Amino acid sequence: FERSKRMVIHVSTNGEFIPLKWNWPETWISVPAVFKDNFSSIYDFEVRNDDVFIVTFPKSGTTWLQEATWLLLNKLNYEEAKRRHLLERSVFMDISTLYGEQTNKGDSVAKAAELKSPRCIKSHLPAHLLPRQIWQKKVKLIYCARNPKDVVLSYGHFLRGKGAYNGSMEEFIDDFLNAETLYSPYWIHVYTMWQMRAEPNIFFTTYEEMKQNLRGVVERLNEFLEQPPLSEAQMEKLLNHLSFESMKANQQVNPTEVIKKSGRPGADFQFMRRGIVGSYKDELSVRNQQRINEWSEQYLNKFNIKMNDIF
Ligand code: A3P
C-alpha cells in the first residue's frame, strides 16, 4: 500500500455495543482512503443469528482456522470443500471496501451476504469496525492471534512477495511498528479481542496454541460451534486435512495460485510459506527482534499484562 493511498480512520464507540471492559475512547486503523466511502456497508451489515465470523490480524492463521470452522459447521462435507475454493465458501468480506473497484471481482460484502446459512465470514477488521450487529445479536466470533514477530515476517513476505509492497523487509518492519501497515495497529487489534475472550460468543485462540495442540483447539471449536462430538476417525481425518503439508497441497484452500493469477507476484511466491512458530528466530536480526520486543512492552505495560498471558 502506497502511503499516499492510506488513511487513518477514527471511530468512536462509547462502549455502546462492544463488551470491552476497558473502554477505548476511540480507536483507529490504517486503511486505504477508499475505505471511508465503503465502510458503512460493513458496519451496517445485516447479521444473521447463526453467522460465524472469523476475525484475525492478517497472517495470524486465518486460512487454517477458516477451513477448520467451515468443515465443522458443514458436517465435515469434504466433497463440497473439494469442489469449491475456501475463498468462496468463506468470503473475505473486507476486500472490496479496501480496494473499491480495483478488485474487479465484484462486491465482497454482497458476496458475504449471499452465502447460505450458516455463513462463515472472514474479516481482518478490529472489533470496533466489525458489523455492529455482531455485538447486538451476540453471534459467534472466532479470533486467532499470533505473536507479532512471526506476524510481521509472514506479512512482509506476503505483501512483498505478491508485489503489493515495494520497500525492503526492514522498511516493512518500520511501517508495522509505526502502525502504517494495513489493519494496524496490531496490539490494539489483538488486545481488544483477548479482553473479550470470556464472552460466550467469542472463541479466542492463538496460532501458537493451534501448532501445539490442534486437536484440543478443534475439540473446543467444535463445542463452541455446538456441533456433535467427533468420533476418533473423524478427528484423525480432520487433523490430517488441516496439517500444513495437506493444506499447502490443497488448491481449494491454498490461495497461492489464485493470487498468482490476479496480482504481480514473483515466481517463487508462496502463501503457505513455512507454517511454523518462531520463524523470526532465524529470519529477524537480533536488533529487529529487540525493537519488536520493546515496542510490544510499551503496549503490554499500558494494558498491564504480559506476553505470556496471551501467547
Ligand atoms: P507463514 O508465512 O509464517 O508460513 P493467514 O491465513 O492469516 O494469512 O496466515 C498465513 C500464515 O498461516 C502463513 O504463515 C501460513 O503458512 C500459515 N498457515 C496456513 N495454513 C497452515 C497450517 N495448516 N498449518 C500451519 N500454518 C499454516
From TrEMBL:
InterPro entries assigned to the protein according to its UniProt record, in alphabetical order: P-loop_NTPase, Sulfotransferase_dom
Question: Which parts of the sequence belong to the Sulfotransferase domain?
Answer: 50-303
**Do the record's keywords include Transferase?**
yes
Per the record, the domain of life is: Eukaryota
GO MF entries: sulfotransferase activity
Give the UniProt keywords, A-Z.
Transferase
Pfam families linked: Sulfotransfer_1
On whether Transferase is a keyword of this UniProt record, the answer is yes
Family the UniProt entry places it in: Belongs to the sulfotransferase 1 family.
Listed name of the protein: Estrogen sulfotransferase
Q: What is the lineage of its organism?
A: Eukaryota, Metazoa, Ecdysozoa, Arthropoda, Hexapoda
The gene from which this protein is expressed is ST1E1
